[in-house]
Amino acid sequence: MRLTRIIMALTVGLAVVAAPAVAAAAAPQPTPSQSVSPTDYPPQPPALTVTPTTTTVGNTVTLTGAGFLPGETVVISVTVNPVLPSITVVADANGRFSVPYTPTIEGTYTFTAVGQTSGRTASTTLRVLPRPQPSPSHTWPPHHGGKPPHKGGWLPVTGDNVGTPVKVGGGLVGAGAVLMLLTLAWRRRSRFGSAGD
Is the residue at 142 inside a domain? Predict the structure, then answer.
């Protein structure tokens, strides 16, 4: 009788001890949560720059774009008076591009880049000044072979150069006067000689 009670007590004790473990095993286990990937950063905003921002007609500048899709076709419109043809480029693996441009007329240029796939848009402006006028060059007379007469260019005109023709003219006038006087003297002498005869 006593043995039976002891066995029953042990059975009850084991049941009490095992009950929480059985209950825990029977309870539904929570599903492991899925790993949440970090939020992606927003894409870089599109940008378009020109270097330099001021130039003259005929000089080449560089248009640089960023923030477009990799391998995307980008059309750059050129707005000036009058409107000029657009430029088509392809962005690289980083969504960037660089293209040279040579303005042909003066004015304020507005460049607008539009991604043909993403629709992203960026713009910039360029100021183009007139081409500098070359300084006038001297044309030397033919008798100098088209070249300056000496290393320093033309010499200033001096009084001797100007007076030479005047001196020649004065000499001719003086010679003419002497001839006239001699002629008059010869005529008078001829008259007096005729009168004495």
Answer: no
173 within a domain of the structure (yes/no): no
Q: How many CB atoms sit inside 10 A of residue 88's CB?
A: 11
- Three-state SS string across the chain, please? CHHHHHHHHHHHHHHHHHHHHHHHHHCCCCCCCCCCCCCCCCCCCCEEEEECCEEECCCCEEEEEECCCCCCEEEEEEECCCCEEEEEEECCCCCCEEEEECCCCCEEEEEEEEECCCCCEEEEEEEEECCCCCCCCCCCCHHHCCCCCCCCCCCCCCHHHHHHHHHHHHHHHHHHHHHHHHHHHHHHHHHHHHHHC
Q: Cα–Cα distance between 189 and 195 in angstroms, integer?
A: 10
Give the domain range for residue 101: 47-129
pLDDT for position 21: 55
Each residue of 137-187: pLDDT tens digit? Answer: 656 566 555 565 555 555 555 555 555 665 666 667 677 777 777 777 777
